[in-house]
Amino acid sequence: MDKKELRKQVKVLKSQYSLEQKVEMSRPLWKELEQTDFFKEARTVLLYWSMDDEVFTHDYVCKWAGEKTVLLPCVKGDVLELRVFKGMESLQPGEAFGILEPVGELYTDYDAIDLIVVPGVAFDRHGNRLGRGRGYYDKILKETHVARKVGICFGFQFVEEVPVDELDVRMDLVIHGI
């Protein structure tokens, strides 16, 4: 199956769940992530502010911002810029997708990032990830040399095989539902 077809299939599956169901389905995924050594040992973590069709992150961004340096991506043109999350008051709708993004100083110390939690359309058991097709995460993942990369998805997004090419970056771990 090609990337376009897999994106279509997963979109149909996502549409079968309400936002409330997806929020509920996200909780055990975060509990599992919080139990990993990757997460426990991380001091600087790149998370994401979830869209309605992704594993819900809002509560967890707020929860961990007091204990870790939590970074969030901001879409600027063709790249993701990183900024530190400093509370709900630091967020404003982004230009590209209307997703809430932190304002403030650009974060550029990529070697200080210990963990990156990456959303995706689909993942497989080899750590391969299918994104939305713009390559935002792949670009930033290639610039982070120390950070562990953890994909997170609902069970229906964990598939037998994700089509990959030379631009795709493999995850160190994928946390997925049943």
From TrEMBL:
Pfam families: 5-FTHF_cyc-lig
Keyword line: ATP-binding, Ligase, Magnesium, Metal-binding, Nucleotide-binding
Chain residues that bind substrate: 54
GO MF annotation terms: 5-formyltetrahydrofolate cyclo-ligase activity; ATP binding; metal ion binding
Example GO BP: tetrahydrofolate interconversion
Claim: Kinase is one of the keywords in the record: no
Keyword rRNA-binding: no
Root EC class: ligase
Binding residues annotated for ATP, in chain numbering: 3-7, 129-137
Cofactor: Mg(2+)
Reaction catalyzed: (6S)-5-formyl-5,6,7,8-tetrahydrofolate + ATP = (6R)-5,10-methenyltetrahydrofolate + ADP + phosphate
The protein's Enzyme Commission number: 6.3.3.2
Family: Belongs to the 5-formyltetrahydrofolate cyclo-ligase family.
PANTHER family assigned to the protein according to its UniProt record, in alphabetical order: 5-FORMYLTETRAHYDROFOLATE CYCLO-LIGASE (PTHR23407:SF1), ATPASE INHIBITOR/5-FORMYLTETRAHYDROFOLATE CYCLO-LIGASE (PTHR23407)
Protein name: 5-formyltetrahydrofolate cyclo-ligase
Species of provenance: Butyricimonas virosa
